[in-house]
């Protein structure tokens, strides 16, 4: 891998995003809008918003980054751009790292806006530091980016890329502990949830919700989420195809 090539790839992706305001709005504004709606859905029950708002602060960015990244990467391949880039002295690792860096910068902006909105506008009540909350939200967005880059290799069209969301995201959403504690699930479902990264993202948010400092469980959870993002990016580089047939 080359640092210069990775940075050049990231700069190219960011220039493309600058001319695509709809994608920027989807990545940056939609999580904020969803949190805003959620707050007023539970307007009569602020404790409910506090209990699930922190978890969804991580889940919403993960979903939006997954969707946008998978479609954007697939569009590069179907248009022939990816094939032309890989014909140059540009490795798959450089390409994936460049995309991850570009979308990661967008994820930083997204996480800052969503976290600031939740804490200082919508009144999300958490015991832990806002910086810990921001860290988990950012890691979740990066995980969504990594998953989107990975699954784009297996889609032949943008429609198929969207279809991967129910297959990849929805099972994690159901088993992550948001609706019922994971230790109260059937043993088989609990075992499956233990290997899904979103479970640890929700657990990390729960730790921030109830503890003023970073706990050992919190550290374990964020390390697992970060490791999963790196692993998925590595798999994405290994499975990247030049073009879609």
TrEMBL record:
Boundaries of every ABC transmembrane type-2 domain copy: 18-243
Which PROSITE patterns is this protein grouped with?
A: ABC_TM2
Q: Main location per UniProt?
A: membrane
Q: Does the keyword Cell membrane apply?
A: yes
What GO cellular component is one of the record's annotations?
ATP-binding cassette (ABC) transporter complex
Q: Where in the cell is it found?
A: Cell membrane
Pfam families, per database record? ABC2_membrane (PF01061)
Q: InterPro entries from the entry?
A: ABC-2_transporter_component, ABC2_TM, ABC2_TM_bact-type, ABC_2_transport
TM annotation in the entry = 24-42, 54-74, 95-119, 131-154, 161-181, 222-240
For this UniProt record, the keywords arranged alphabetically read as follows: Antibiotic resistance, Cell membrane, Membrane, Transmembrane, Transmembrane helix, Transport
GO terms classed as biological process: response to antibiotic
User: How does the record classify its membrane topology?
Assistant: Multi-pass membrane protein
Q: Which GO terms describe its molecular function?
A: ABC-type transporter activity
**PANTHER family attached to this UniProt entry:** MEMBRANE COMPONENT OF ABC TRANSPORTER YHHJ-RELATED (PTHR30294), TRANSPORT PERMEASE PROTEIN (PTHR30294:SF38)
* Family affiliation: Belongs to the ABC-2 integral membrane protein family.
Please report the name of this protein according to its UniProt entry: Transport permease protein
Species of origin: Streptomyces lunaelactis
